[in-house]
Automatic annotation (TrEMBL):
Source species of the chain: Ramlibacter tataouinensis
Name assigned to this protein: Molybdopterin molybdenumtransferase
Cofactor: Mg(2+)
Keyword Transcription regulation carried by entry: no
Pathway(s) where this gene product acts: Cofactor biosynthesis; molybdopterin biosynthesis
């Protein structure tokens, strides 16, 4: 590893040290809160379920009054949403899933273990255990319990849980406002120039599409400033416009030190800048700075480098801005079904996917320009510096589902 390269964990720690949670919150409909970060604890004012209820269609009974083959009269019918009468002695109550248990009953016999007989009676082929097929009041949520904690990122299941305790609106962190642009005279937008008319050296701007999509998935409001020409004055103007009213300026390309890389002097002319060379592959060049009240992050231009640095560095930064408490993706250990005899001296994030045998296959071309690898793969292998991988070795695998959520 070259001297002066910053370990990824150190770079992330430095980056996150600048990410103070944004001031302000918003109250939004529970219907619209998916993916937002909860701004206050959600405390239940009720029990879920509110009273003991049946988890099966069948008959509510007193266990002490049953024996195998017993026949009991049916004294009442209890559908879900009704209020039952106390269970009459020596009888059974026809009951349906979700219906409240009548006072005096201590078990439910599912209908498959019963047989109707004449005169509205029912025969029982099995004697239940006390409490069988009864869902107890509060077994899901207790009154006064914190069901969702401040800093949790809301999921569809979270929204259902909030609704189950009667919550129709939630206090969530406000959305980060992010200005996005790409730099490079070689960049062309799809639809503007047909492939047959592309000039030599021109490429379609793929980064703008996946970066915008990643920002939206993280709940950001995106101000898309398009493609900025490789000129100092144009870069300064774009940065000045981006800093007005935004929390973060995110760029791709132009963070190296070539003659056409104008991000560094432009940011320094308006604010402050740290340029980091991170000991990771792909994604070595990375920049963080400030322009007025806005954070600035500059990503490398190669598409896979831009993608990987976003999900490993920018994603946790944006989550912390929203007050999220879980920032790190969860990895799992899986066996390698490939060999990597010549590892890089930097920490590598190898595009891979799980196979039918529960192991990992490696995409054959790990170049930072091969965006196909990020579509083919369903995750990345986090491989330490200089570590060769033999077939069968267990490696740390981070699913893309952890990095894109």
């Amino acid at each position: 590893m070259k001297p002066g390269l910053l370990p990824l964990d150190d770079a992330l720690a430095q980056l996150l040290s600048h990410a103070a949670p944004l001031a302000g919150a918003a109250r939004v409909s529970t219907f619209e809160a998916d993916g937002r970060v909860l701004a206050q604890d959600l405390v239940s004012q009720l029990q879920v379920p509110p009273q003991d209820n049946s988890s099966m269609d069948g008959y509510a009974v007193r266990v002490a009054e049953l024996a195998e083959g017993a026949v009991l009269p049916v004294s009442q019918r209890i559908p879900a949403g009704s209020q039952p009468q106390p269970l009459a002695a020596g009888s059974a109550a026809r009951i349906f899933t979700g219906a409240p248990i009548p006072q005096g009953a201590d078990a439910v016999v599912m209908q498959e273990d019963t047989e109707p007989v004449d005169d509205g009676r029912v025969r029982f082929s099995r004697v239940p255990e006390p409490g069988q097929w009864i869902r107890r009041s509060g077994e899901d949520v207790r009154r006064g319990a914190v069901v969702l904690a401040r800093g949790e990122r809301l999921t569809p299941a979270s929204l259902g849980l909030a609704a189950s305790i009667g919550i129709d609106a939630l206090e969530v962190a406000r959305r980060p406002r992010v200005a996005l642009f790409s730099t490079g005279d070689e960049l062309v937008m799809p639809g503007e120039v047909p492939p047959a008319q592309m000039k030599p050296g021109a490429i379609y701007n793929s980064n703008r599409f996946f970066l915008r999509a990643l920002l939206l998935r993280l709940g950001c409001e995106v101000k898309d400033l398009g493609i900025v020409p490789d000129r100092r004055e144009a870069t300064v103007q774009a940065l000045r416009e981006a800093a007005a009213g935004c929390d973060l300026i995110l760029t791709s390309g132009g963070v190296s030190v070539g003659e056409e890389d104008h991000i560094k002097p432009a940011v320094q002319a308006l604010g402050s800048l740290d340029l980091w060379q991170i000991a990771m592959k792909p994604g070595k060049p990375f920049a963080y700075g400030r322009i007025a009240d806005a954070h600035f992050i500059g990503l490398p231009g190669n598409p896979v480098s831009s993608f990987i640095t976003f999900v490993l560095l920018v994603r946790p930064f944006l989550l912390k801005l929203q007050g999220a408490t879980r920032l790190a993706p969860r990895a799992m250990e899986l066996p390698a079904h490939f060999e990597l005899p010549r590892p890089d001296r930097r920490r590598e994030f190898l595009r891979a996917r799980r196979d039918a045998e529960g192991g990992l296959d490696l995409f054959p071309n790990q170049s930072s320009g091969v965006l196909t690898s990020t579509v083919w793969g369903d995750g990345v292998i986090d491989n330490p510096p200089g570590r060769p991988i033999a077939r069968g070795d267990r490696v740390a695998f981070i699913p893309l589902a952890e990095l894109l959520a």
